[in-house]
Backbone:
């Protein structure tokens, strides 16, 4: 039961209310003035506080302000015989949970206490969930400080402790399966199984038996009975990746499972009930497929109770540096070597469009580490697409405004050539021979061009 503090200068009233509440199992403390209220509040750590507005040594609103500033997580209820709208409004603005006008009936007080207890419980559960989310984030591969990722984490936190079906949408490589696992780990089902199945990776004729299982003799080769993924996920979560790839006939059976939480194995007439949560994911526009008649509308809305969209990496570029550092740190631990990456390369990675998203970035970092000659990663260690993107960006940056686009062609070409040379020299730490190799020209040609454009190698 919650600890309750009653603050009122009417001693008889305090005795009557406290006695009645103690009989109901509450732990009740009393104080006849502000001084005693402060002392008792600090010593007993009360969770629900009833404050009279008119106290001998202090106004109840002033005490409310003081307590709420120090202990905002507690619940405060104002009681007064001088009930009026202005004081009620002020009390609520200062953080009061409720406002009761004397004489107060015991049943009114009990109702308010129950409401306050439920509110406190919800806040405590939310706090525990946030702490659990932070802990799992530290261990998870999910990383992101962008506003988009913060919104996703907030939505995951809110939906985790429900049984609502979740549809996760986003391009390949954005981390849909990681979000699904995070939802499971944060839920009350976390001690149960998390079963993942890629619907696109299994032939249509085998997918049904994989999902629902089969009985002995159900088809040629079925020499024994076998449970499916739905049975394996009982008490936990099933994650249906690439849900858009399932056939229309299988969509109808999946609809029944989402509605009834029951199914039959292939070759069986026995109905099996399961306690599962369904999370699905797709890299396609499922709503458009519904409009085209390629995906059942009723199934779409069953799976789409909560929708989480993960934006591609190119739309949250502020996450790229922290992701790159995290992936590099994993390689440091793997090879026990202090790999480093320059700010210039980070800028190149940030400007690249990443069609493969986070997965492509991780693979690019791993490739660069494997090909790295020493501790410092070179741009030459990265995939060709990333290396070539530097020059595309240079061309775009050379003529950002219309007036420069109208320059004569020789001037445009000279400006681009100069920028390429400067870039190559920066990446080669001013070494002409190395820069010439990057540019595919001789050292003598490079020195001539550096002199022509007044380029200082330092």
Residues:
């Amino acid at each position: 039961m919650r600890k309750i503090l009653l603050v009122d200068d009417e001693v008889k009233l305090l005795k009557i209310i406290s006695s009645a509440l103690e009989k109901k199992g509450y732990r009740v403390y009393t104080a006849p003035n502000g001084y005693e209220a402060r002392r008792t509040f600090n010593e007993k750590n009360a969770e629900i506080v009833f404050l009279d507005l008119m106290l001998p040594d202090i106004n109840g609103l002033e005490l409310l302000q003081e307590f709420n500033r120090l202990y905002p997580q507690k619940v405060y209820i104002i009681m007064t015989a001088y009930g009026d709208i202005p004081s009620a409004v002020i009390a609520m603005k200062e953080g009061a949970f409720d406002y009761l006008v004397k004489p107060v009936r015991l049943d009114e007080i009990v109702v308010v206490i129950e409401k306050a207890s439920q509110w406190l419980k919800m806040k405590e559960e939310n706090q525990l969930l946030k702490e659990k989310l932070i802990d799992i984030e530290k261990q998870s591969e999910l990383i992101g400080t962008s506003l988009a990722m913060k919104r996703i984490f907030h939505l995951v936190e809110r939906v985790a402790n429900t049984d609502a079906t979740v549809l996760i949408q986003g391009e390949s490589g954005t981390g849909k399966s990681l979000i699904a696992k995070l939802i499971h780990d944060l839920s009350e089902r976390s001690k149960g199984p998390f079963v993942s199945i890629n619907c696109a990776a299994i032939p249509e004729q085998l997918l049904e038996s994989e999902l629902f299982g089969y009985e002995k003799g159900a088809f040629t080769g079925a020499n024994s009975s076998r449970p499916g993924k739905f049975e394996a996920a009982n008490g936990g979560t099933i994650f249906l990746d690439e849900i858009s790839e399932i056939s229309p006939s299988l969509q109808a059976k999946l609809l029944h499972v989402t509605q009834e939480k029951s199914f039959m194995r292939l070759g069986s007439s026995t109905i099996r009930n399961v306690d599962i949560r369904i999370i699905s994911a797709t890299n396609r526009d499922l709503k458009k497929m519904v409009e085209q008649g390629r995906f059942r509308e009723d199934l779409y809305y069953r799976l789409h109770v909560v929708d989480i969209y993960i934006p591609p990496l190119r739309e949250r570029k502020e996450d790229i540096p922290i992701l790159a550092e995290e992936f590099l740190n994993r390689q440091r631990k793997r090879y026990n070597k202090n790999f480093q990456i320059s700010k210039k390369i980070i800028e190149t990675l940030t400007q690249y469009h990443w069609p493969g998203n986070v997965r492509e970035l991780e693979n690019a970092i791993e490739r660069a580490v494997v090909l790295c000659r020493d501790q410092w990663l070179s741009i030459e260690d990265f995939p060709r697409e990333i290396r070539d993107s530097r020059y595309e960006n240079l061309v775009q940056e050379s003529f950002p405004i219309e007036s420069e686009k109208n320059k004569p062609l020789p001037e445009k070409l000279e400006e681009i050539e100069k920028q390429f040379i400067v870039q190559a020299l920066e990446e080669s730490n001013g070494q002409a021979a190395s820069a010439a190799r990057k540019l595919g020209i001789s050292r003598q040609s490079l020195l001539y061009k550096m002199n022509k454009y007044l380029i200082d190698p330092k």
About this structure: The two ends are 73 Å apart (CA to CA). The first strand starts at residue 3 and ends at 7. The mean pLDDT is 85.
